[in-house]
Amino acid sequence: QKEVEQNSGPLSVPEGAIASLNCTYSDRGSQSFFWYRQYSGKSPELIMFIYSNGDKEDGRFTAQLNKASQYVSLLIRDSQPSDSATYLCAWRYSSASKIIFGSGTRLSIRP
Amino acid sequence: DAGVIQSPRHEVTEMGQEVTLRCKPISGHNSLFWYRQTMMRGLELLIYFNNNVPIDDSGMPEDRFSAKMPNASFSTLKIQPSEPRDSAVYFCASSNRPQEETQYFGPGTRLLVL
Lengths: 111, 114
Known about the structure:
B: four-stranded antiparallel sheet
């Protein structure tokens, strides 16, 4: 079974600090990686996707991919209480294959 | 657009009963996904369709589960007979692959089987 592993948390971060979420995956052939955010009782929503090694930035969010080490990270700068949610990382082997989700990391931003 | 629409939003039923979950994808999307989410197993893909054709149903737990997509604007997920272990939140999502990476999730159906 090709898997994605995440620390379930909860991860507690003070407001204004950088939150760092990490994910490791098992298949070296993986091509696409995703970060979803899910508020309690709500459905997942895509934050970012990344294909290439390195960093990809979007506002306060930065996704980092290291294919050699098989990990992908999400950094949230200037954390806000509204960032408190569960963050799901996911990957896909190819554009035609299904997305595999990790179990999620609960993030709590404390005022 | 109204987004992905799912019905019912909540369903409580008794073991052995048939359950039908419904989904209307976003207009123009060519891919539809059914997921199940539980605390123990997380978010699992059950089946997905591309252009109304089932592509991968390897996540369907057993023969009690079936899914159909008779046209581009409607899909059903049926459980017959239902069991307490089927209690979960069932999400439907749609996307416009390969042009878009984003899967848009519906609000989910919370199923409780007693």
